Amino acid sequence: MANWSNEELDTIGGADELEIAPLRDDGTEHGPITIWVVRHGDGLYVRSARGREGRWFNAARERHEGRVLAGGLDREVTFVELGDDGLNDAIDEAYRSKYRRYGAQYVDPIVGSGARAATLNVLPR
Length: 125
What we know:
InterPro entries: UCP028498. The chain has five helices and seven strands; from the N terminus they run αββββαββαααβ. The protein is an alpha+beta fold. It has one domain (6-124): Electron Transport, Fmn-binding Protein, Chain A (Pnp Oxidase, Chain A, Roll). It has a seven-stranded antiparallel β-sheet, with helices on both faces. A hairpin with a 2-residue loop joins β5 and β6 (73-81). The longest helix is centred in the last third of the chain and has 13 residues, at 87-99. The protein is globular. The chain starts with 5 loop residues before the first helix and ends with a strand.
């Protein structure tokens, strides 16, 4: 599996928003949907604010492939569900730190249990 370059991590991780377009079973793109993205270490992570009920999230889980656009970069990606490996706390902190200016009204749901259960690692393809 490919790795992000430092430039890509800085660009995508530093972007306020990410356009995400998971692929449907027939290979066409679902979306794009505008969501928040965070960087933790050498990884990029996204969450569904609607938890596991989110349409884009379920599309990403079905095929595990799609496209993201952020900071002028357009990349084909693979989506990997985050297991319960202890990263969620660090990802919560990344969301709180990056998006705190939006206030608890918007940040609290994305660090809540429903969104935590709908966390994807975004990897270049």
